[in-house]
Amino acid sequence: MSDFHYQQGSLWAEGVSLEQIAEQFGTPTYVYSRAHYERQYQAYADALGDHPGLICYAIKANSNLGILSVLAQLGAGFDIVSAGELERVLMAGGDPAKVVFSGVGKTADEMRRALSVGVHCFNVESESELDRLEAVAAEMGVTAPVSLRVNPDVDANTHPYISTGLKENKFGIAIERARAVYARIADSQSLNAVGVDCHIGSQLTELAPFLDALDRLLVLIDELAEDGTKLKHLDLGGGLGVRYRGEEPPQVSDYLGAVKERLAGRDLELVLEPGRSIAANGGALLTKVEFLKRTEEHNFAIVDAAMNDNLRPALYQAWQDIVAVTPSNGDTESWDIVGPVCETGDFLGKHRPLALEEGQLLAMLSAGAYGFTMSSNYNSRTRAAEVLVDGDKTYLVRARETLADLVRGESTVPAKDDQ
Ligand code: LLP
Q: Where does substrate bind (predicted)?
């Protein structure tokens, strides 16, 4: 049984109908399938097999504590990019020793916290960051485990906003500089080189760029060995794509099969940081049609979810399927599915062939990654609820925000005359 499927004329997540979820929790609501997250994580763990290494779920894709706890229970590692993400991992029961800390702007406080809980390593993105990490580790009297994120300068062939491994991007250290930087690490009392990593982009649908990057990293690893630095692990980042609409991304098993083949005979642990490929197709954004509005140019369906709930269409012109929860037999027309936010860019989908009525429920599919995590309170909209389905059980893993949540920490100021 697929995680989201039609049964009795209506869309279900595992053993619960989305109609029931809308009735119980309201809309808009993100709905997640536990089985999906488990299966996708397990595909990576199985493909890694007995090769030593870690599957570190990139929690920026979906950082809800419910999801993180499901993955922590399976023994997952985590890729984090902030102190907030680190605290989420700890709250969800994740093991800090399986955490890799990525990101270009780590603060000294974030480094301190990560060193004190004992993360697996810091994926260091610049020489200035290395200086800061060395100073923080020295002050704490500890040694910081370091992996340099190198920029292998390969074209991931994806949307420019989510391509990260080119020279022109802000990420990583140029691969030509890497040897000199590892030499600097070798000279430090407070730094220990444990690995090397890269992340060349997201939503990749071909293996070739991953394997190109891997080959470049292996050349570097051999050069470092000549210099006397023996690395324990190689981290290829995340980036494997998913099917939103007809894409045919490689299978996890084919990807890791090809990687492991190249690693054969080497004593190198393999670390991966998948986000989207674990999360995207495990979630749907459930929304209700408020109004139907026909103009000369377009038919607009105004729904109660908006760009603040899912920014991907507005930001990347991303396409995600939108389906009726209970399809009717009415005439299909072409609809632009738009939200209530005051921006022309506020749309979830354009030109969608659907038979719609006011009050009807729609589901935006493939919304389990970079959906809720990129949501905001723009237009003072309270953020959606999140519900995790497990078989025929539902868990409200994030309550819908209230007006009190919306203004928490804000205050008014007295009138001028009262000052
Ligand atoms: N590791 C690092 C260092 C990353 O920067 C990312 C994603 C990942 C791992 C996970 O990549 P994934 O397996 O999910 O492709 N908001 C965009 C995607 C941004 C990806 C940023 N980095 C979107 O909605 O398409």
A: 276, 312, 316, 343, 370
